[in-house]
Design brief:
With about 400 residues, the protein is an alpha/beta fold. The chain has an 8-stranded mixed sheet with strand order 1-9-8-5-4-2-3-14, with helices on both faces. Strands 10-12-15-13 form a 4-stranded antiparallel sheet. Helix 4 links the parallel strand 2 and strand 3. The longest helix is centred in the C-terminal third of the chain and has 29 residues. Bound molecules: pyridoxal-5'-phosphate.
Length: about 400
Amino acid sequence: MKRIYLSPPHLGADEFELVKDAFASNWIAPLGPHVDAFEQEFAHAIGVPYAAALSSGTAAIHLALQLLGVGRGDAVICPTLTFCASANPITYQGATPIFIDSDPDTWNMDPGLLAEELHDRAKRNRLPKAVICVDLYGQCADYDVMLDICARYEVPLIEDAAEALGATYRGKPAGRFGACSVFSFNGNKIITTSGGGMLVSENARHIERARFLATQARDPAPHYQHSVVGNNYRLSNVLAAIGRGQLRILADRVAARRRLFDRYRAALEDLPGIKFMPQAAYGEPNAWLTCITIDPTEFGATRQNLQHVLDDANIESRPVWKPLHLQPVFAGCACRGGDVASDLFERGLCLPSGSAMTDDEFDRVIGVIRGVHEDANKIMAYKIMNAIGV
Ligand SMILES: *Cc1c(COP(=O)(O)O)cnc(C)c1O
């Protein structure tokens, strides 16, 4: 049986023609007309004035930190429940991540704990240089609250919307809330360029500087002249062509993932011990991945058991992100709280969420999950009967 992947790419009708155009025009370079057009079309879709197309979301976060002046010895706040790429660029700058636990109602960074951390650090004159706020699994953080807290301490916020393209918060698209905001077009994201990212901002100078820093920081001179250390982070014109095609069908992809989330909920919510990632009333998530938590005593199996049985049936699922404060690479970094995120990791599972998933594939996934629960019931009944000697 064909493997069902967690979140495979899903091409539309236009990508191939656009890529052929890049070839036909010989723009096989990290600049060109598709890069310019992708930036403009993307900025328009989000409703921001400026965007820079980059080689990855990680590169976009790294540039955002450089733009905000994060350097050696600085602290930067980041949620603990996220992909490592949210925090790795902090260390590229010689700065230190400070992790914050999740809010159980949204799984995003807990605003109360953020306020406590900023309050404590203000007293010690050790405010962080920036706060990275992640829109986890495609659900925006509560930005009215987050931005108000950051503004009180005059700390800039970077929005890591890598997973949240197409989501909204109080009617505004994800990516509108940071001093700089970041998107990813990695292969498993809601749209993909095979690899790529975007940095967006209301601030023209930020994006102009980002382009400069992303192309080896070449000074305006007739020869190669450099006054600061740059990066090689621009997106290829070929990949930008793919991105333009993908952007045209973004609304369809979001609708498909949201529909899948609703279908999973309808098909599984009667099972004891299964809960879905909560959706906050303040916005519309893009439902990038459908995530559940499993209570093993009620469901009859742990998330590890379920993941193995799914894998045996050739179905890919993944545990919720392992919190960064539990990652060996970040051992020794401070974390405020952490039990909520650790529990979500222990019990959380991301189900196959591809926008091209067929009805048959969906039924296969549901069949395995319901089967695990039914088998657990049978084993339990057998044990009880055995114990009373029947
Ligand atoms: C995917 C992702 C990134 C990194 O994006 P890449 O394009 O893979 O470098 C950053 N943050 C989060 C939350 C992500 O999910």
